[in-house]
Amino acid sequence: MAGNAADIRILKIPLAFFGIYNETPDQQTLERLEIYIAKLKKELQRHAIKSNETPNYFMPEDFKLALSVMPITLFRVGDEFEMPVDCAGILFEHAYRQKPDEQRVLLEILQSSPEYVYHLLSDDHERRERGEPPIPFQLSSGDILPIESMERMLLLHSPHWSILWLQKKSMDDFFRRILQGVVSLKDHDPGSAHCYHWLKTHHLPQEERTAKVVRHLETLGGNTWYAFLTALEHPTADCEPLLKSILENPAWCYEWLRWIGRGPRDVLVDKLLESVPWTIQYLVDVNPFDAGELFERARQKNTNPWWTEWIEFYAGTRRG
After folding, report:
1. What is the mean pLDDT of the chain?
2. How many alpha carbons fall within 13 Å on the CB side of residue 302?
3. pLDDT of residue 150
4. Which residues of the chain have pLDDT under 50?
């Protein structure tokens, strides 16, 4: 079942859970979703007020999970109120294409996110090439981050995004520093391990490449994306060490079950069922032989009140 990574679209939002099954949903579906987002935003504001009034306040887990599968809510806030600090994890997953001049606090939260920084640098580079004003990498304190600081963030956190940036802006010194980082971190950092293996083996036959990736599997299994990518690139490699991080995340269990299809299905499904949204996305996209049973198990397992209306909506569409 594994395929080419270039042909695969990794989902970040389980849209099928909200009744969106294609790129042109009907107006009624969109209106229903807008009402739901408005409710989430109102509740988020209530927690934001509490967060400002109460030291060390954290939002309820049920609500954070609801936000994590409909993160659009966070980008409807603008400057209306300050988001609670425990929104940071959700922003890390979903804010990589947001504009820093629209909400400066995003740059403060996400300046260590290589994907976010890469897109900011790319947008700035394209603006400069068009003769437009550069992006002001400005924090809410008013401090300006120089481009060199942003580039250092890429070097510290991701050889993958560093290399993509190097393709846009060629710099000999930057290239040398990427290689130094990859070699020194190959046994500890999943991104460096993946890059090092590619540099050493890309010219070899597939069988030899797979044989040589074995020594890196434990390291690669520490990151969901690199574990997933390695399983795609090496369909015969042992998937047990690669599942280490995958089995911590229902969304990645969905991706694995859909695209990889190897390993202990029962274990992967049990983790998937912890998230009704991703379970329903799996049922819609894959239509497994036990779809009815999995839906009922997910339905009974759910304790999140923010998901109840969508579960019943999906149940109605199944009956229809």
Report:
1. 87
2. 23
3. 78
4. 1-2
* Host H or E run for residue 269: helix 265-272
Give the burial class of 64: count Cβ atoms within 10 A of its Cβ; 0-12 exposed, 13-18 middle, 19 or more buried.
Answer: middle
End-to-end CA distance of the chain: 31
Nearest to 116 by CA among 156, 150, 141, 77: 150
The two tokens of residue 315 are 């149940």
How many helices (H) and strands (E) the chain has is answered by: 18, 0
- Residue type at position 280: I
**Residue 236 · residue 264 · CB < 8 Å:** no
The model's pTM: 0.83
Q: Which residues contact 174 (CB under 8 A, 6 or more apart)?
A: 151, 155, 162, 165, 166
Q: How far apart are CA 127 and CA 106, in angstroms?
A: 20
Give the SS3 label for residue 56: coil
Q: Could you give the angle at which helices 276-286 and 291-301 cross, rounded to 10 degrees? A: 170
